[in-house]
Amino acid sequence: MAANDDDLYGDLDDAAVAKSTGAKPAAPLPSAAAMGAHPNAMMSQPEMAQLQRQVQALKSENEVLKRNIGILYRTAKSELERKDRAIDTLQNELDSMRR
Q1: What mean pLDDT comes out for the span 55-65?
Q2: Residues 6+ apart with CB under 8 A from 10
Q3: Residue 21's closest CA among 13, 29, 11?
Q4: 63-81 in b/e burial notation, b at 16+ Cβ within 10 A?
Q5: FRET pair for 42, CA 20 to 30 Å: which of 60, 70, 82, 93?
Q6: Contact status, residue 43 vs residue 51, Cβ threshold 8 Å
Q7: What's the pLDDT at 1?
Q8: Between residues 36 and 70, which one has the greater pLDDT?
Q9: Long-range contacts: 15-21, Cβ < 8 Å, 24+?
Q10: 73-93 pLDDT, tens digit each
Q11: Average pLDDT across the chain, whole number
């Protein structure tokens, strides 16, 4: 399967679309390879190190948030179950008083 085979709108004429909408057809962006550089080569080592530190910090924060949301979910679930049991108990007491 070629790269153009999965182009959903490949059969549309860009000029006709641009004329009907009044927009100019978008020019394709040059790739890093076309510019003659590896994508990471455009960053200095300190910038790359800073980004790697940010990624690590975000991963750590993400893990803490996942753990916290799990704890929160389990706490809320057990609290709902406790309240349901309390409601059932009170309902049973009320029913026994009405008899």
Answers
A1: 97
A2: 4
A3: 13
A4: eeeeeeeeeeeeeeeeeee
A5: 60
A6: yes
A7: 47
A8: 70
A9: none
A10: 999 999 999 999 999 999 999
A11: 79
DSSP 39-94: GGGGS-HHHHHHHHHHHHHHHHHHHHHHHHHHHHHHHHHHHHHHHHHHHHHHHHHH
d(CA 66, CA 79) in angstroms, rounded, equals 20
Rounded Cα–Cα distance for residues 30 and 8 (Å): 21
DSSP 8-29: TTTTS-HHHHHHHHTPPPPPPP
pLDDT at residue 69, as a whole number: 96
Pick 75 or 10 by higher pLDDT: 75
Residue type, 23: A
The residue written with tokens 């080592």 in the block is 45
